Every structure is written in C-alpha cells, then in structure tokens.
Amino acid sequence: MRRLLIVATLLLLPVSVMAESIDAPTVKAGDSWVYRVTTEHGPQGWAQHEDDFSVEHVDASTIFLSVKPSGSQREPVEQLAGADWSRSRDINGKQQVVNRPFAFPLEVGKKWELKYTEANPNRQHLSETFDTGYSVVGWEDIEVPAGKFKALKIEAEGNWTAVLAPMNQVAAQGVTTASGSAMLVQNNRVTPHTTSGRTYKAFWYVPGVKRFVKSVEEYYSSNGIRSERLTNELVSDKVSS
C-alpha cells in the first residue's frame, strides 16, 4: 500500500511543475519592439500605423522608453512605464496607475483589481471612475506579424461611470411653410446625471519577448455599443537575453 502511495505521489508531480510562475522580465537599455497599432472608432472607421519602442534606461521602479512612428524622422517621444509595464498619469494632482496588465509573478488563476476616479477629466464630465478586474486565463498559441508564440493570456473586464457636467444643448431645425422658411431653435438644459459603460482588455504575454505580443482594449458606451478598440500586434523585437 505504501509503495502505491509513493507511485501516486510521483505521478502528480508533473501537474505542479506545469503550474509555472512567471517573474518580472529583466528589461535592459537597448531592448526594442515594433508594434502595429490599429485604432477603430465605431462607425467612424479605423486607422493603422507602426510604432518603434526602445528602452533608453531602467531603474528599480521605472522603464524609460523612446517611442516614434516607424520610419519617421521626427524626434522620439519619451515615455515612462512601471517596472511591471504598468501605465501611470496625473489623476487629481497625483500620479496614479491607470493600467496594470501584469502583476508579477504571473501564474494561471491569479487575479488583481485596479480602480481610480478622476475629477473634471474633460468639459463633458464632472468625474470618471474606472473599475477593472484582471485575471490570468492560461497559455494560448497566438500568431502575430512577428510570428507564432505560446503566450500567457491575461483578460480584464471592468466598468466605467461618469457624471455628466451641466450644459446647454441647442438643436436647430429648418421648417418650410406656405409663407416661407424659418429656423426653429430649441435650447435644452442638461442637468448633472450619471452614465456608465463597460471595458474589456486582453494581453498575451511572452516571457522571451519581455512584453505582450498582442493587446486589445475595448470601450463600450452606456447602450452597449463598442465606441473604440485599440489593438497592438508585435511586428519585430530585439531584446537581450
């Protein structure tokens, strides 16, 4: 009986080995990536271009990048990313993380959340709140312009809410009668109220590439219609070992 238990235990070992944990990448100066970026704006159409990303230097918490359109002679734009490839920006006078696709170490089943509220983000909204839950789904085979990869997929589903700012909406309509033409103007006062929608994101992370090989970010309006989709696909990379 004891021998049977030992054999059964050994048979279970490969399962635990397959539950691989992925540590944060060691990003170095000179690492670079080219991405094909596709932006879709609902019924308004879409646009596509390629961007070059290059690491200038790194420290314990930040990756310093230079970014420019592929083939462009313009000076690159300098961007900052967290050591975990998170994105931050000024929210109400304080730098806050607004996107965290990876929470290292990564392992299948891991979950994390990100929530922030911004006051007066634009003229139309008094405030905006984004609440997103991330989850490591599992390994997938994926093909992008750079080739075929086995990638760890992370999905993020969330909600956004916004408080509309008070404003006047003016509607004009031309009217033709027997005595001539006239323009009717109607002025409506919009009072502050809350509207909401949903978001969806997916990232396919490849340890050897040190970044995602594909990402998709989608935003849905209050009536459930997709208003925007942003897709990044890896075209080529040059990273140190």
Could you characterize what this model shows?
Mean pLDDT is 87; it is low at 1-18. The protein has 241 residues and is mainly β. It has one helix spanning 2-18; strands spanning 32-40, 46-58, 62-69, 77-82, 87-91, 94-99, 111-119, 125-144, 147-164, 167-177, 180-190, 194-206, 211-220, 226-238. The longest helix is centred in the N-terminal third of the chain and has 17 residues, at 2-18. It is globular, with a radius of gyration of 24 Å. It has a 10-stranded antiparallel beta sheet with strand order 4-3-2-1-14-13-12-9-8-7, with no helix packed on it. Strands 5-6 form a two-stranded antiparallel sheet. It has a single domain (20-163, 194-238), classed as Beta Barrel (YmcC-like fold), CATH 2.40.360.
Mean pLDDT score, rounded? 87
Alpha-beta classification: mainly beta
Number of strand segments: 14
Share of helix, binned? under 10%
Order of helices and strands: HEEEEEEEEEEEEEE
Tell me what portion of residues adopts beta-strand conformation. over 45%
CATH class type: Mainly Beta
Globally, the shape reads globular
Uncertain regions: pLDDT < 50 for 5+ in a row?
Answer: 1-18
Which architecture does the CATH hierarchy give at level 2? Answer: Beta Barrel
Across the major sheet, the strand order is 4-3-2-1-14-13-12-9-8-7
Largest sheet: 10 strands, antiparallel
- Radius of gyration (Å): 24 Å
Look up the CATH topology: YmcC-like fold
The first-to-last residue Cα distance is: 48 Å
Q: What is the helix tally?
A: 1
